[in-house]
Specification:
three-stranded mixed sheet; single chain; mainly alpha
């Protein structure tokens, strides 16, 4: 059964409509102040296209990808990525703008003779020397000279001791 006022579906047990009983009484209709005067006919509003939603198109995605790739290329041309078991990963500025020797292992450089490392990774060794992570050529030459002088002095002492032992024992 339907309510005759509002059309609400009533149960067979309900006498009064619960929607109409709780609803406030309808207000009397007041005249619209705008339409109370003379009516003027206006032109219909112009038809506008619905606003477009901004979507990331294929060209925009391509531009973003190219930008990221360009940034990575510039980063790889400007910095050495130095991996070390002691310090982890460091970024050292390159001496020259190039893609060669971008990824370098500090353990491999320090694990081989200095001359061989300098011939295999010349740009990386020069950059690491400039950053102070490896000893410079002057420090290397000074250290080698000091080691040679120490070995020479030790050999000289041993030779003198041998000479004294031989000369002193023969008399």
């Amino acid at each position: 059964m339907l309510c005759p006022k509002c059309g609400y579906s009533l149960d067979s047990f309900e006498k009064d409509c619960p929607r109409c009983a709780n609803a406030p009484p309808p207000e009397p209709k007041k005249p619209d102040p705008i339409l109370s005067g003379p009516v003027r006919v206006q032109a219909p509003p112009p038809e506008l296209d619905p606003p477009r939603r901004h979507r990331l198109g294929a060209s925009s995605a391509l531009c973003v990808c190219l930008g990221v790739a360009g940034f990575l290329l510039l980063f790889c041309c400007k910095y050495h990525v130095v991996q070390s078991s002691e310090n982890g990963t460091d970024f050292v500025p390159k001496v020259n703008f190039t893609l060669s020797e971008t990824f370098v292992s500090m353990d491999a450089i320090t694990g081989m003779p200095f001359v061989q490392a300098r011939s295999r990774w010349p740009l990386a060794v020069k950059a690491l020397q400039a950053e102070g992570m490896l000893e410079s050529d002057e420090d290397f030459e000074a250290r080698i000279q000091a080691e040679l002088d120490a070995k020479m002095a030790e050999s000289k002492r041993e030779a003198q001791a041998e000479f004294d032992r031989i000369m002193g024992g023969g008399r």
